[in-house]
Amino acid sequence: MNNHEELIKQWLKDNRARGTRFLQILVQENSTRGNESSAQAVIIEKCRQLGLNLDIWEIDRDELKEHEAFCCDRQGFEGNPNVVAVLKGTGGGKSIILNGHIDVVPVGDEKNWEHDPFSGHIECGKLYGRGSTDMKGGTAALIMAVEAIIATGIKLKGDIIFQSVIEEESGGAGTLAAVLRGYQADGAIIPEPTGMKIFPKQQGSMWFRINVKGRAAHGGTRYEGISAIEKAVLVIQKLQQLEKNRNIKITDPLFNSIPIPIPINIGKINSGEWPSSVPDLAVIEGRMGVSPEETISAARGEMAAVLDELNQQDDWFQENPLGIEWFGGRWLPGNLEVDHPLMKTLSESFVEIKGEKPVIEASPWGTDGGILSNVGNTPVVVFGPGITATAHDANEHILLEDLFAASKIIALTLLKWCEVSE
Amino acid sequence: MNNHEELIKQWLKDNRARGTRFLQILVQENSTRGNESSAQAVIIEKCRQLGLNLDIWEIDRDELKEHEAFCCDRQGFEGNPNVVAVLKGTGGGKSIILNGHIDVVPVGDEKNWEHDPFSGHIECGKLYGRGSTDMKGGTAALIMAVEAIIATGIKLKGDIIFQSVIEEESGGAGTLAAVLRGYQADGAIIPEPTGMKIFPKQQGSMWFRINVKGRAAHGGTRYEGISAIEKAVLVIQKLQQLEKNRNIKITDPLFNSIPIPIPINIGKINSGEWPSSVPDLAVIEGRMGVSPEETISAARGEMAAVLDELNQQDDWFQENPLGIEWFGGRWLPGNLEVDHPLMKTLSESFVEIKGEKPVIEASPWGTDGGILSNVGNTPVVVFGPGITATAHDANEHILLEDLFAASKIIALTLLKWCEVSE
User: Fold this and answer.
1) Percent of chain A having pLDDT more than 90?
2) I need a surface site. Which of A204, A276, A409, B412 has the fewest CB within 10 A?
3) Is B159 strand, coil or helix?
4) C-beta neighbour count of A66 within 10 angstroms
5) Complex prediction ipTM
6) CB-based contact (8 Å) between A276 and chain B?
7) What residue ranges define each of the domains in chain A, with the CATH number in brackets?
8) Are the Cβ atoms of A269 and B269 closer than 8 angstroms?
């Protein structure tokens, strides 16, 4: 066995430039929502070269829409396929899903980026660009691990099911489609940007939209109107209080080092059309974290309760109650036992490569792991090389050293989990 | 003289339906910014029928742009002309400008309107629609007054210079263009929606834009970012405090019944692109009122000072200072003596028609009067039939009774001010 591990480690050491170049090409293809096709083409071409069994299909909204885990406001998937590529095992070993999402979030204010957001610029051991960390770096680590096994001629007993899915950033319709297409396994690794931490538990999350009404008036007699912006400030303050109250209750030690275990992020506000009019509508959009121990509906209930409270406390809201809408993205929480065999195998491989124990925590954000585990009955660990802090940020980047280490750790895990066929 | 007045009053009484219909047609033409042409066509056709000397021209940005009172972010004026129509006097009397703006503000959230915003719907003596009050109703009162004089065969000594201008809601480029084209007079009436009050002083105002920076991050680790929305709340609170401090200092009795003499209206906020990202930029836009006794630059200085204060107080703003931009609309304040002859003439006519003394106040909003008086050296009174509270609001409407009364008061004022040529 040691021989196989050494072969793999050596190949990965010798092929760093190859892995780096692959990630660079992947980052250079802008794959924001609705534009995933060209990055998927890079994935498909690579899988074809590796001789994997490819399954490429466009999501059929009609097939998925009745499923209770389906949560997606996108109408068309034409031209932007899901990709699954299987390395069939010789039989008898445990199977594994390696799941990465190809979609990336928008770039934000481009002025905050030092380089073009899709440059793939490399400097001081870091590769920059939208998606480099979240999570094309993770996907590159998966591909390198699989390529190492194939290139060294090692045969495994269990199947490796590599998935490059769309829609993770918007509610997981891509992974749901893969699960409903029949892809399940004895375990799964999702290399989201954990900064090399291992996350057996994953925070769930969901998006909300709150409509805050005002009454329009001329700005010069603004006292004759009701500013939707001023009213929205009350809502923001209430949400901040709710976030505080919910997080005080989180006592799981896996959350110990996370400042806000289940955040309520206010991601958007839009109000007003004209500087000198009192705005009559403010729309707040955000993301509410869901604890691994709670249900989606319990979390929604807490949000509804504080908005009801505000509706009671404020004269204007009594007449013009706040409405909440749960739309777009929703990620089910995940909750794997810390001593699950997959956790043990991954942790051992981590120690072998890094020479130290891994940090085991709860993930501060939702992933497609909730769908894989809850709908697909597949035990999921989230572990990857990207840097949490730079995900969704300007100047997103990844440390290439972490990428190389992660690919080794994942490759060793594959050898042990799927078992080498001698 | 009494005979002329009786003739005028009788004609206006007999032609109420005619005036109502004219206003209705005018309201039915959507004349939001950039779309003023079809409403101006209605005005032009009417002035042509009345035999007025028409001057129709498109504003030439290049001619105006160097003027210090020019304040306009609109590039093209093609197809949306300014209109001036003169009823030449026989000579020897005082001239008067009757100024109305044809542009209307956007309709806001259409769901808040009971009828189509451009319906011109009439019910219970009220005519509804965007612009009915601000200020096509005022313009209709002017036209009715002029038509009454012409229809009754009365000749005046002084010139009546009727103006239907664009761009009032965005900084007054239309009136500035008319002034620079040479239109000046011994007095001016602007029938903005004062609710039949007489405003010798006008609040100035100007638009501002404040950029509030944040630092993007994934919403699940929002503590790693800085929310531009949370930071924007601090700015909003600071502006609310500034408004309070500025208004405490206003002691002019003309402002006695105005809850906030010089408001700071926060009309717009836009921040964020994605519910589960920490937003890295919030843009606040609004309108700052300027007291008739202060200069534009003094008011700007007060705003700059409080933002500087915030830049000092807050660690994040120390590194990422707030920037302010004065853009778009700017209306100079106006300040006519309460005992100016035009005030006396208008007040007398008011008493004759209404049988009571007019309410004399300071206008709670800027008008083109600032340009007419400061640049055009023309004494300005603002007085009109529209209802301040419904201007810029959903279900904007005007009381037709007020429209008829205003047209009589203005017509009598014309007889006295311009003098009847026997």
Assistant:
1) 85
2) B412
3) coil
4) 7
5) 0.75
6) yes
7) 2-202+333-418 (3.40.630.10), 205-331 (3.30.70.360)
8) yes
